[in-house]
Write a structure and sequence with these properties.
Elements lengths: L12 H14 L3 H31 L6 H12 L7 H15 L1
Helix pairs in contact: 1-2
């Protein structure tokens, strides 16, 4: 039969007051609120770490997006019709540097 484990933690007085206020507003115990917060924190961080591991695995296997795939995503989110290839952008930057210097 699974059971709950008691855990003791230290809170700054201001955080304890905020937890008490939240507990009263939600008509829940401090323990319930704290357990829920920890549950959500653990869930989000487990997901984030797993996604980072997947990304590192893809990078190690050299599974990168092509330049065209990146351009499509940029167009999708910015609404720009055309995005110059990296080689053209670098060439323009070089010519600007020559004019400035």
């Amino acid at each position: 039969m699974p059971g709950n484990t008691v855990m003791t933690l230290r809170l700054e007085p201001e955080l304890r007051k905020r937890l008490d206020d939240l507990s009263k507003a939600q008509r829940r115990s401090r323990s319930f609120i704290a357990a829920e917060a920890i549950r959500e924190y653990v869930t989000v961080n487990e997901w984030q770490i797993e996604e980072i591991k997947k990304g590192l695995g893809e990078a190690n296997r050299e599974e990168f997006a092509s330049e065209e795939q990146v351009r499509r995503v940029i167009r999708k989110w910015t609404g720009r019709k055309r995005i110059a290839p990296a080689s053209q952008r670098q060439a323009r930057r070089g010519s600007r540097r020559q004019r400035v210097g």
